[in-house]
């Protein structure tokens, strides 16, 4: 299968996904979402476990950011400049922990904005990274800022629609779930530039598991009222950026001679 065909498949999937998003009626944020199973307060911290379980996001985000900034020539990159999209990703992960803790201390729509904003930006940064490392380096780098802006804009748009009583979650849900659909397909269709693809697969698997735990918040808490599904969701979801961090520390470049040619129009042959 040629590179153009594989890229065409991704474009077609993107168009279909966007069409489905637009075909669905606007979805407002249900207020029951803020009513989490574990309401306990310890040491004066409201909803304690849902708040403090965000600490791993902050630790991994800061650790990843500092490592990328302090290591002069990371062995896991063909070019040290490729670290910058990962810096954006890990900064957003750290901010996700802060924003989520702030939200869970007093769950409401206004605070939910600060939970979702950095998370959506992290999703889009990771999508740009995978495009750069699997499909075309220049395309991924060019798309980094627009995709991150799209992630931020999807959350700001949702919050604005809530303030005018016309809540619309569709774009935010697209930004959150579209990468979960397209990233595995990219991993299958395009050869890697680096080793340790398994870490990326594991990161996706951990995040999907976290979403299941989020849905089962009450059911998990009912099993002895020890810990809720949402608290476990935070801990399990933090494993995803942890695996991404492990990947960039341990991986090594693969010989570029075995890779697909970039998406470019070849120059015409010279005439003798």
Give the gist of this structure:
The chain has eleven helices and no strands. The protein is mainly alpha-helical and 272 residues long. Helix 3 packs antiparallel against helix 4 (83-105), helix 4 (83-105) packs antiparallel against helix 5 (109-135) and helix 6 runs antiparallel to helix 7.
Topology:
Blueprint: H1 3-23, H2 48-52, H3 55-70, H4 83-105, H5 109-135, H6 137-163, H7 170-189, H8 197-215, H9 217-221, H10 229-237, H11 239-250
Helix pairs in contact: 1-7, 3-4, 3-11, 4-5, 5-6, 5-7, 6-7, 8-10, 8-11
Walk me through this protein's architecture.
With 272 residues, this protein is mainly alpha-helical. It has a single domain, classed as Rhopdopsin 7-helix transmembrane proteins (Up-down Bundle). It contains eleven helices and no strands. It has helices at 3-23, 48-52, 55-70, 83-105, 109-135, 137-163, 170-189, 197-215, 217-221, 229-237, 239-250. Helix 5 (109-135) runs parallel beside helix 7, helix 6 runs antiparallel to helix 7 and helix 8 (197-215) packs antiparallel against helix 11 (239-250). The model is unreliable at 261-272 (pLDDT under 50).
At CATH level 3, the topology is: Rhopdopsin 7-helix transmembrane proteins
Low-pLDDT sequence parts: 261-272
The fraction of residues in strands falls at under 5%
Rg, rounded, reads 20 Å
Category by helix and strand content: mainly alpha
Amount of helix: 55-70%
Number of helices: 11
Q: What is the CATH level 1 assignment?
A: Mainly Alpha
* Count of β-strands: 0
Report the mean per-residue pLDDT as an integer. Answer: 91
Distance between the termini: 33 Å
**What does the main sheet amount to?**
none
- Shape summary: globular
């Amino acid at each position: 299968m040629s590179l153009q065909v594989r890229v065409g498949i991704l474009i077609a999937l993107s168009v279909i996904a966007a069409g489905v998003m637009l075909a669905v009626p606007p979805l407002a944020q249900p207020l029951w979402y803020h009513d989490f199973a574990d309401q306990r307060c310890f040491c004066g911290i409201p909803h304690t476990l849902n708040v403090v379980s965000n600490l791993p996001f902050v630790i991994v985000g800061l650790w990843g950011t500092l490592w990328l900034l302090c290591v002069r020539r990371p062995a896991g990159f063909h070019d040290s400049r490729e670290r910058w999209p990962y810096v954006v990703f890990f900064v957003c992960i750290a901010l996700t922990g802060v924003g989520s803790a702030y939200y869970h201390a007093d769950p409401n729509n206004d605070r939910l904005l600060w939970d979702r904003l950095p998370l959506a930006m992290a999703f889009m940064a990771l999508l740009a990274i995978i495009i750069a490392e699997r499909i075309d380096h220049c395309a991924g780098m060019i798309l980094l800022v627009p995709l991150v802006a799209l992630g931020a804009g999807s959350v700001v748009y949702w919050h604005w629609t809530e303030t005018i009583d016309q809540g619309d979650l569709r774009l935010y849900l697209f930004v959150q779930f579209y990468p979960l659909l397209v990233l595995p397909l990219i991993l299958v269709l395009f050869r890697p530039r680096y080793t340790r693809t398994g870490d990326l697969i594991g990161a996706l698997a951990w995040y999907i598991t976290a979403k299941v735990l989020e849905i089962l918040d009450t059911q998990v808490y009912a099993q002895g009222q020890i810990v809720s599904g949402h608290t476990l969701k935070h801990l399990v979801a933090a494993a995803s950026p942890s695996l991404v961090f492990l990947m960039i520390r341990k991986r090594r470049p693969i010989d570029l001679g075995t890779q697909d040619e970039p998406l470019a129009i070849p120059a015409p042959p010279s005439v003798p």
